[in-house]
Design goal:
By secondary structure, the protein is α/β, with parallel strands linked by helices. Helices cover 18% and strands 33% of the residues. The protein folds into two domains: 48 residues, 2,3-Dihydroxybiphenyl 1,2-Dioxygenase, domain 1 (Roll); 50 residues, Roll (2,3-Dihydroxybiphenyl 1,2-Dioxygenase, domain 1), CATH 3.10.180. It starts with 7 loop residues before the first strand and ends with a strand.
Length: 123
């Protein structure tokens, strides 16, 4: 069987550079590569990448989605050791806290392009 290795996740955005800057500041990751319609972030340990690709006609997903709403197709899960501080940091960078929160130890936030992501408390 062929060996398969996940190397990264690519997120569509109306402005890939702006969204890469948001996640770079949120996670403390540096920009590894910039092209006209694509920006790659690289983890400090050299591991996987998080990439952003220009998506013309981007429609932000709704959280939670109702009938006929644009649904999210994936979301990022980010472990934190201080939930309140992590939420404050994300908001200071341009995230918003979603109105619907399904769990006490998780905060669903929306990035500047409207993608939901979860900050969850390390046990």
């Amino acid at each position: 069987m062929a060996r398969l290795t996940l190397t990264g996740v690519n997120i569509g955005a109306p402005d890939p550079y702006a969204l890469a800057e948001f996640y770079g500041q949120l996670l403390g990751w540096g920009i590894g590569r910039v092209e006209e319609d694509d920006v790659w972030l690289r983890a400090p340990d050299g591991g996987r990448t998080l990439s952003f690709q220009r998506e013309t006609g981007h429609v932000p997903p709704k959280w939670p989605a109702g009938p006929g709403d644009q649904r999210m197709t994936m979301h990022l899960e980010i472990m934190v050791d201080d939930l309140e501080a992590a939420v404050a940091h994300a908001v200071s960078l341009g995230a918003t806290v979603a109105g619907f929160q399904p769990q006490d130890d998780v905060r669903v936030c929306l990035d500047p392009a409207g993608h939901p992501f979860c900050l969850w408390l390390k046990e």
